[in-house]
């Protein structure tokens, strides 16, 4: 929300400056990227540099922090403080523009225009409590929230009088909520999740002290249902709570929901002995528009679905949507007199702005708009994968996905410049609607140019990534 607002009034002067169309990053005195903290380690008596960045609590950030200082007595007269703060913010805004332009690694659609909502930033909009029960706090946006929830319930085919849900603070909160319902429905249930599930699933298992079984994955990143079956057969006496990934974080793999259900049925788990939560944080809103994707629908025996609002949809603040069956929510909720509402959410206070942003985008784009964007993302992802391969760089793109996985660039500076997410030997780009062909070209050209300097003797040798992505996707000397 960009607005220049000096005084509180309902007549707001929202001076929303659009981002320049063709933004020239060289024109900006951008903050230099913080230096890479070099890690040395000793191997065979030699000091060598360690891969990646070491994570040290409380060390990385303090050198760059913007200190809070006490106002001087005469600041109000001189206006110096105001001017100082304005200059800090202006510089920060410039760096945001620059960092937004060079972002490829995280699945955030950074292309949106919510200028019309700038006028709302003066209100402390809070939807605390249950979306369907009005609390005594009146500055809320439940009317928008429930409208958005209805839209998602329809998308996932659950009747208005049969669903419950809320707008969460993020995809993680949806997962925490979905797994919690599973646990409340089956207090002695075992949580099954593929190894490549998002870390929030394993966090839920720790928080709720649940027994958790990690299931192997195929090389694509999908859950391996043969292994799943083995594990189920060993634990037939306990109900199963399953996390199904609608897009895994690193490889963008979509678990085969139908096969998961079939596996449960074949091992003797009747529908009243399992609970499925679908983690759609990444692709929950993309899969409905992909022809061959296994359909996520409450017509199948699933208990809940969640999605992140700031990923594919795009939103200035993190948010998400969680939808479940109304019948489950009573197991979870408690009445709270102080709120004159019911407590069935993970958080207490909830961001009341987020539902309005989601409502605004859904209205603006609608089904057709999303379908077009999904098609564009898949097309551009293929373009990126093909060009990487053509340049001799090992790369993989799952069929139902816009996440292009490839060999990890050997230079941390480059990784940080493009804000790539890395894990082990691989990195990825998640092609979101704001990632245009031009941007991909810039990235590719720079990658190819830099890459020639990363290997000694000018000899290009691709690292082997067959273990991560399979031999077919590897471009190393043995596999190409
Ligand atoms: C991003 C992501 C999450 C977590 O979502 P947040 O909104 O970042 O909390 C969960 N699962 C998957 C598969 C994700 O990609």
TrEMBL record:
<keyword id="KW-0663">Pyridoxal phosphate</keyword>
<dbReference type="GO" id="GO:0019752">
    <property type="term" value="P:carboxylic acid metabolic process"/>
</dbReference>
<dbReference type="InterPro" id="IPR015422">
    <property type="entry name" value="PyrdxlP-dep_Trfase_small"/>
</dbReference>
<dbReference type="InterPro" id="IPR015421">
    <property type="entry name" value="PyrdxlP-dep_Trfase_major"/>
</dbReference>
<dbReference type="InterPro" id="IPR051151">
    <property type="entry name" value="Group_II_Decarboxylase"/>
</dbReference>
<comment type="similarity">
    <text>Belongs to the group II decarboxylase family.</text>
</comment>
<dbReference type="Pfam" id="PF00282">
    <property type="entry name" value="Pyridoxal_deC"/>
</dbReference>
<keyword id="KW-0210">Decarboxylase</keyword>
<keyword id="KW-0456">Lyase</keyword>
<dbReference type="InterPro" id="IPR002129">
    <property type="entry name" value="PyrdxlP-dep_de-COase"/>
</dbReference>
<dbReference type="GO" id="GO:0016831">
    <property type="term" value="F:carboxy-lyase activity"/>
</dbReference>
<dbReference type="InterPro" id="IPR021115">
    <property type="entry name" value="Pyridoxal-P_BS"/>
</dbReference>
<feature type="modified residue" description="N6-(pyridoxal phosphate)lysine">
    <location>
        <position position="311"/>
    </location>
</feature>
<dbReference type="GO" id="GO:0030170">
    <property type="term" value="F:pyridoxal phosphate binding"/>
</dbReference>
<protein>
    <recommendedName>
        <fullName>Serine decarboxylase</fullName>
    </recommendedName>
</protein>
<dbReference type="InterPro" id="IPR015424">
    <property type="entry name" value="PyrdxlP-dep_Trfase"/>
</dbReference>
């Amino acid at each position: 929300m960009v607005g220049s607002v000096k005084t509180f009034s309902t007549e707001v002067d929202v001076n929303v400056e659009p981002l320049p169309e063709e933004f020239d990053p060289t024109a900006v005195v951008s903050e230099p990227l913080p230096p890479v903290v070099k890690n040395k380690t000793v191997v065979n008596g030699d000091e060598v540099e360690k891969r990646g960045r070491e994570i040290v609590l409380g060390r990385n950030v303090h050198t760059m922090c913007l200190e809070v200082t006490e106002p001087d007595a005469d600041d109000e007269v001189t206006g110096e403080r105001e001017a100082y703060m304005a200059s800090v913010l202006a510089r920060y805004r410039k760096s945001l523009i620059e960092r937004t332009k060079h972002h490829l690694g995280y699945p955030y659609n950074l292309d949106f225009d919510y200028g019309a909502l700038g006028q709302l930033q003066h209100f402390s909009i809070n939807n605390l409590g249950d979306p369907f029960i009005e609390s005594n706090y009146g500055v809320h946006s439940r009317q928008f929230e429930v409208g958005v929830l209805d839209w998602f319930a329809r998308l996932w085919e659950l009747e208005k009088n049969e669903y419950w849900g809320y707008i969460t603070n993020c995809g993680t909160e949806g997962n925490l909520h979905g797994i919690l319902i599973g646990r409340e429905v089956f207090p002695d249930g075992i949580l099954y999740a593929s190894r490549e599930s998002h870390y929030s699933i394993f966090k839920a298992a720790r928080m709720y002290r649940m027994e958790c079984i990690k299931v192997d994955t195929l090389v694509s990143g999908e859950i391996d249902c043969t292994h799943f079956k083995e594990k189920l057969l060993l634990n037939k006496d306990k109900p199963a709570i399953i996390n199904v990934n609608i897009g895994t974080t690193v490889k963008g793999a979509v678990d085969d929901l139908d096969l998961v259900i079939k596996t449960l049925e074949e091992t003797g788990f009747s529908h009243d002995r399992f609970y499925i939560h679908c983690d759609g944080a990444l692709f929950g809103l993309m899969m409905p528009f992909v022809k061959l994707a296994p359909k996520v629908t409450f017509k199948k025996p699933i208990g809940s679905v969640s999605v992140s609002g700031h990923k594919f949809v795009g939103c200035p603040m993190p948010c998400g949507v969680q939808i479940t069956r109304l019948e489950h929510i009573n197991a979870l909720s408690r009445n709270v007199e102080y709120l004159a509402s019911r407590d069935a959410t993970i958080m207490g206070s909830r961001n009341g702005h987020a539902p309005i942003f989601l409502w605004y985008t859904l209205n603006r784009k609608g089904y057709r708009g999303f379908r077009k964007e999904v098609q564009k993302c898949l097309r551009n992802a293929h373009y990126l994968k093909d060009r990487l391969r053509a340049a001799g760089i090992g790369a993989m793109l799952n069929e139902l996905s816009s996440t292009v996985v490839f060999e990890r660039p050997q230079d941390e500076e480059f990784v940080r410049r493009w804000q790539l997410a890395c894990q082990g030997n691989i990195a990825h780009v998640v092609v979101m609607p704001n990632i245009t062909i031009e941007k991909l070209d810039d990235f590719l050209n720079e990658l190819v140019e830099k890459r020639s300097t990363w290997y000694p003797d000018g000899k290009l040798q691709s690292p082997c990534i067959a273990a991560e992505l399979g031999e077919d996707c590897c471009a190393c000397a043995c596999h190409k």
